[in-house]
Specification:
Layout (H helix, E strand, L loop, with lengths): L4 E9 L6 H6 L5 E8 L6 H7 L3 E4 L5 H11 L4 E6 L2 E3 L1 H10 L9 E8 L13 E9 L3 E3 L8 E3 L4 E10 L5 H22 L7 H16 L6 H28 L1
Parallel strand pairs: 1-2, 1-4, 2-3, 6-10
Antiparallel strand pairs: 4-7, 5-10, 6-7, 8-9
Helix pairs in contact: 5-7, 6-7
């Protein structure tokens, strides 16, 4: 019988039946529990999660930060790992985490993971795949998710963290249509959050946001090496950055 780590995995989800299976299956054999916090799926996400051995429960959507805080509260272990429904722990990372717990609880307060992107149609990581460095494995007595509705980041104060070396696979978009729908929803939430904060953007941002974001993605992130797919999703990212600024200015100046 496999000894499971004293580690809880929690995943927030909404209509993720086609993707959440990978996330659950990548961890269920070596962690104590997997918890899915569902905000009202209508596609059978909760039933699939339960079939795969997760504990699934409904919680109305409160925004990214608060939804993940609710997830933390459902975990019975102090050590928690947060995954998104479109992510998958690689076998190499699983082994690295298992080794981390091999002599008891880890010595750090938390660990930063390398979240590496796969574009639609890609099954293997390209060498220059974009990587986000995100604190996702942590002791919840030392840190909690922020309560921001749009920025879901773990806040740890006066405690040490370290970085793990192996990746999490991230399939953010099912297709370009899905990317556009997701972008529209998320940029609206970002604009609302910016209005609450009362930030000031110069009008020049309307001219510079798109080309700067395209250059950042297509050139600096290496999407230029990913062919036509890379060009398409660099354009999509650039437009999302522009839409965030434009929507905020519309709220600020015309409402």
């Amino acid at each position: 019988m496999t000894i499971k780590l004293p580690l809880s995995v929690f995943i927030i989800a909404h209509n993720e039946i086609d993707r959440i299976g990978r996330a659950i299956e990548s961890v269920r054999e070596w962690v104590d529990e997997v918890i899915v916090i569902d905000s009202g799926s209508t596609d059978g996400t909760m039933a699939l999660a339960q079939t795969l051995g997760a504990r699934a429960q409904y919680h109305g959507w409160e925004g990214y930060g608060l939804q993940k805080r609710f997830g933390e509260d459902q975990c019975r272990n102090d050590w928690v790992l947060n995954l998104d429904a479109d992510e998958e722990v690689t076998p190499q990372l699983a082994q690295e985490i298992i080794e981390l717990f091999s002599k008891g609880n880890p010595i750090m307060a938390g660990y930063v993971l390398r979240i590496r992107d796969l574009l639609p149609g890609e099954e293997k990581l390209v060498f220059n795949a974009h990587t986000n460095f995100v604190l996702r494995l942590y002791n919840k007595k030392e840190g909690r998710f922020s309560d921001s509705p749009v920025h879901d980041s773990v806040q740890i104060e006066a405690a040490l963290t370290a970085m793990l070396t192996q990746p999490v696979l991230h399939r953010s978009f099912r297709s370009l249509s899905h990317a556009i729908d997701k972008m529209n929803s998320y940029t609206s939430a970002q604009a609302d959050n910016l209005q609450i904060k009362g930030l000031k953007f110069p009008c020049l941002r309307l001219l510079t946001e798109f080309p700067m974001a395209f250059f950042k993605t297509y050139i600096l992130r290496g999407y230029v090496l990913r062919g036509r797919r890379g060009f398409i999703y660099a354009m999509q990212y650039a437009y999302a950055r522009f839409a965030r600024v434009a929507k905020y200015m519309e709220l600020r100046d015309f409402t």
